[in-house]
Design a protein that fits this description.
heterotrimer, A alpha/beta (255), B alpha/beta (241), C alpha/beta (494), A: 255 residues, alpha/beta, Rossmann fold, 6-stranded parallel sheet, 4-stranded mixed sheet, 7 helices, 12 strands, 24% helix, C: 494 residues, 10 strands, 10% strand, elongated
Chain lengths: 255, 241, 494
């Protein structure tokens, strides 16, 4: 069915012509009391402490460090513990300002983006189509890269764009240098985070999306709260189903 | 204060002592109680099964029966809930009847609701040095919002040990015709309800709805349980007179 | 909804379920757990009634202006590179999916949880076309391997024991396993990882479509929704047309309501917002995104003041977890994609065969627990009554019942007829049914048998309240008393 007919039918059932301007709203978003008190009764909440507590309750671990050197130590320590044979990361250039060159230079981490080849985008963006349209995008991914990732790197290292304290959540926004697979395919996910990136509640992250023009809207945004889990087998909780079985956050305080 | 008793067909026919206790309690607190003999039934059995026209015929009689009452008080959360929640819907098509229905809604109360909210009585001077648990009527608590009032009255019964009923908010399985139409499911529900009553091992099971009590009592009797099922009105009267 | 071939009645399906002890216990265990967690979590969160009202307001506003928001969603999604399709009904949805599959020469479809996809029987259609169509949600995969249907919206395989799951997995993988959770889950992780890599098409549902940017938001715990939208070349979103919300601010309300209502979690492990296919220079994510927006009877509820609110549903399953009937019979008894209270309401609304499905509205005592639990305040209990009214108006109820209620109306619409009827009834009980005697011979053969199977009939002393009223009215009035004084001084006056 055509979009216009579909929409027209809806409007018709609602007793009018399709609306062309945004309807008035009495309320939008969360109640004011939540915006004022995102931690409920608790006051003077330290965001770092709360983030650590919430993530721990979900089976994730946070290592709080004072600076980039501390972050490096923490990572080395984790590698000693986890003994990864393969590490993939977001594009190296995303980590500028973190002083972690050793990851790639010494440790052999793979900076995960297409090596060399440039993608070819499709001509213009597809319009809303009827079922018999034939437009297709013409991007050719590097199959080798995808397969390699799919074999399951042991560790995937990313940054985060934001973190949410009251739920222990990381917010990762996808871009060419920030591939979504890196936080998903490896067995363990490690995210580097700075204290200044932590907000109280998710709405504060969502609010930043309001500044985007349509063309700036990213292909995907991922809110991640701990390792993957399921209770589908006789209600018995198991950690580590399809997504990573472990999540670590290396959190630099004071910056 | 003039109060008309809305007896409900179930209490009228099977449990008149509940009505008697209700009247005596109300009169003790200064109510001049009358009984409009014209009343029959709130119409719920037909309404809940989808027979709206039949429900309307019956409910219309209730509008007439209580037309001149100041207050209408009923010993049933379920029947009062019917009036409050569905009479507007039932008479929506007729402005004259709707206006009368809305007047009835405004002056109709379940007994514990009336005692506590209108008469401001929470202590009836009862004493019962035994144990009891309370089963809330689904319609009474959810349609009518009567949750705290029966508990307040029970808490003020001297020397009574009031034990919370596990999963008290779960339906007992009566649901009017449901108990007959889906008897095995209803049977499982009442069995579970009585398992919960048995688990607290009390002397009395108190409720504001004889439909619930009739249902639960039937299974309790089948098991030969010692717990006495009793309506709140009878309980309060018995132990305060 | 697609024509379902079920001709059986709810009560017969329920009888089968009630005979399965494991199932009954599993349903009780699961629903207890989920509702306790919801209760703990919403209490800890605080102000739950205000949150419910906010959720209701956002959903109701959206539905009341669905033309605007859905149009906005579709246009914005298209501007981000998605193909947006509109499917009137099951047949159209199936056709669109098949065309995408054919055009892409797809062989394997990997699905994460989508109830809409089940509504349009997409698995059968794809399999008939020769594709492998695989569920990847652990519970859904288990149910698929068993050739069954899910029995709960959130936890689809609660009716399977770990032993049964072990057998299913061993057969699937050809390797010996044990029945402990870790081993079984580990097997699923390995087996399904291979499938994620092979899949040509990833199919998901859509928890919420954000109109503001045309984004599709999914909530999941396992990571499979992310998998099927990261590795396969093509992503198909199956979306009910009502699953739209206006903007990102509104999403915060849903992220607070949905996980808590479903499982008691503050948030699901993954909340992902997808806006079209991968961008230029991105190396993962789908190359092609298709959003199929499905009507299938939903638009019929718009403009109907009795049922429009049912479109507010956010598919959390909270109503299932508190329903005292679902508790006893589980999901399969409802015979269709959606079980429990929400299923009992939308199945008759969306299905064509009103006679077959309208009877689901009677699978309830109208206790109202569903309404109380619903995070967006859908009056499911009222809707069940409205459905029953329609069922009666359409003449689907049996003749004896119709006559019984006609008789009831005649007897109860005036006091005179009532008195006669009641006297007769009391005589019947006393003389014919055997007063208070369990399972008297007569009781066994009457319609009352369903009652007396579980209960001993109440005694009847013979006199009604109205018979004794005059003597009660003549009694002396007692003086009031409380436990503070002995009451003898107080006299409120008679």
């Amino acid at each position: 069915m055509e979009r216009s007919d579909f929409i027209r039918r809806i409007a018709g059932r609602l007793g009018r012509e399709p609306l062309t301007i945004a309807p008035e709203r009495d309320v939008t978003g969360p109640p004011d009391f939540y915006i004022e008190s995102p931690y409920g009764e608790d006051v003077d909440v330290d965001r770092v402490d709360r983030f650590v507590t919430e993530l721990k309750a979900l089976g994730g671990e946070t290592i709080v460090v004072p600076d980039n050197a501390g972050a490096a130590s923490a990572l080395r320590s984790l590698f000693d513990q986890l003994r990864p044979s393969s590490i993939i990361t977001w594009d190296r250039s995303e980590f500028s300002g973190w002083d972690q060159d050793w990851l790639w230079d010494e440790r052999g981490a793979v900076s995960w983006r297409l090596s060399g080849e440039k993608n070819h985008g499709s001509e213009g963006s597809p319009a809303v189509v009827a079922p018999d349209s034939t437009e297709t995008a013409s991007i050719a991914p590097s199959l080798g890269d995808l397969k390699k990732a799919a074999q399951g790197a042991d560790i995937g290292i990313t940054l985060a764009d934001y973190a949410v304290a009251n739920t222990g959540t990381l917010a990762l926004i996808t871009s060419p240098g920030r591939a979504r697979s890196v936080s998903l395919l490896p067995t363990t996910h490690i995210a580097l985070l700075r204290e200044s990136q932590i907000v109280d509640r998710m709405g504060q992250v969502l609010d930043t999306f309001n500044t985007w023009t349509l063309s700036e809207v990213p292909s995907s945004i991922h809110f991640i709260s701990g390792p993957s889990r399921s209770s589908d087998i006789e209600n018995d909780l198991t950690i580590g189903v399809h997504g990573p079985v472990a999540v670590y956050v290396v959190l630099v305080r004071g910056v | 204060m003039k109060v008309s008793l809305f007896i409900t067909c179930l209490v009228d026919q099977f449990y008149p002592s509940v009505g008697v206790s209700a009247v005596r309690l109300l009169r003790r607190y200064g109510c001049d109680v009358d009984f409009p003999a014209r009343q029959t039934c709130c119409g719920q059995p037909a309404f809940n099964s989808g027979y709206v026209a039949q429900a309307r015929d019956v409910a219309r009689n209730q509008l007439e029966a209580f037309e001149d009452s100041d207050y209408v008080v009923s010993p049933s959360g379920s029947c009062t809930g019917m009036v409050h929640h569905y009479y507007h819907d039932l008479f929506a098509g007729d402005p004259v009847l709707l206006a009368r229905a809305e007047r009835l809604v405004a002056k109709t109360f379940e007994l514990s609701q009336f005692l506590v909210d209108v008469l401001k009585i929470t202590d009836v001077g009862a004493r019962c040095p035994q144990t009891a648990t309370f089963h809330p009527s689904c319609h009474g608590s959810r349609l009518l919002g009567v949750r705290e009032q029966p508990l307040e009255l029970l808490r003020n019964v001297k020397d009574l040990t009031l034990i919370p009923l596990p999963k008290s908010q779960d339906c007992c399985g009566f649901g009017g015709t449901f108990a007959v139409k889906m008897s095995d499911i209803s049977g499982s529900m009442v069995q579970e309800k009585v398992d919960n009553v048995a688990s607290v091992g009390v002397d009395y099971l108190v409720s504001t709805d004889m439909g619930c009590i009739m249902n639960i009592a039937g299974q309790m009797r089948r098991r030969g349980m010692k717990t006495e099922p009793i309506h709140l009105a009878e309980f309060l009267w018995r132990f305060s007179s | 909804m697609a024509h379902s071939t079920t001709k059986s009645k709810f009560i017969d399906r329920a009888a089968i379920a009630q005979g399965d002890d494991f199932l009954v216990n599993a349903v009780k265990f699961t629903t207890d757990r989920l509702r306790n967690r919801k209760s703990d979590s919403s209490t800890a969160f605080g102000n739950w009634e205000e949150w419910r009202e906010r959720g209701r307001a956002i959903r109701a506003h959206t539905i009341a202006h669905l033309d605007y928001y859905l149009d906005q969603f579709a246009q914005n999604a298209a501007s981000r590179g998605a193909y947006v399709h509109f499917a009137n009904d099951t047949a159209e949805a199936q056709k669109i999916v098949l065309e995408i599959a054919r055009k892409n020469k797809a062989k394997v479809v990997a699905k994460s949880k989508s109830m809409v996809s089940e509504e349009v029987h997409i698995n059968h259609v794809l399999e008939d076309e020769g594709l492998e169509c695989l569920e990847t949600d652990l519970g859904e995969w288990i149910v698929q391997l068993a050739h069954e249907t899910p029995s709960h919206i959130i936890i689809p395989a609660i009716h399977k024991t770990r032993g049964q799951i072990q057998v299913l997995f061993e057969k699937e993988g050809g390797e010996k396993l044990t029945d402990d959770t870790k081993t079984l889950a580990g097997f699923a992780r390995r087996a399904l990882r291979r499938k994620f890599e092979l899949a040509d098409i990833g199919m998901t549902g859509c928890n919420f479509g954000i109109a503001q940017t045309g984004s599709v938001v999914t909530f999941s715990n396992e990571g499979n929704a992310r998998m099927v939208t990261t590795l396969p070349k093509t992503h198909i979103v199956m979306m009910g047309m009502e699953r739209v919300i206006p903007n990102w601010d509104d999403l915060e309300v849903m992220t607070n309501l949905l996980p808590r209502s479903a499982t008691g979690q503050k948030i699901t492990v993954y909340v992902s917002a997808l806006s079209g296919p991968r961008r230029e220079d991105e190396i993962d994510g789908p190359e092609e995104t298709h959003i199929i927006i499905l009507d299938n009877g939903r638009s019929e509820q718009l403009g109907d003041p009795e049922f429009q609110d049912v479109l507010n549903c956010i598919r959390c399953g909270a109503c299932l977890n508190v329903c005292p009937v679902y508790r006893q019979v589980g999901g399969h008894s409802y015979g269709s994609v959606y079980p429990g209270p929400i299923g009992a309401v939308i199945t008759p609304l969306l299905q064509q065969d009103k006679k077959q499905w309208g009877e689901l509205a009677y699978a309830s005592t109208l206790c109202g627990a569903c309404f109380e639990a619903c995070p967006v305040k859908i009056p499911l209990h009222d809707m069940l009554v409205h459905l029953r009214r329609r069922y009666v108006e359409q003449n689907y109820t049996p003749l004896p019942e119709k006559l019984a209620f006609k008789g009831y109306a005649a007897a109860f619409s005036n006091a005179g007829a009532y008195k006669v009827a009641m006297k007769t009834g009391r005589w019947m009980q006393l003389k014919v049914l055997g007063n208070a005697v369990p399972e008297s011979e007569m009781a066994k053969v009457t319609p009352v048998h369903g009652w007396t199977k579980y209960r001993t009939l109440p005694e009847n002393g013979g006199k009604s309240f109205r018979d004794i009223w005059s003597s009660i009215a003549a009694e002396e009035v007692e003086s009031p008393r409380t436990n503070e004084t002995d009451g003898s001084e107080n006299d409120f006056g008679a």
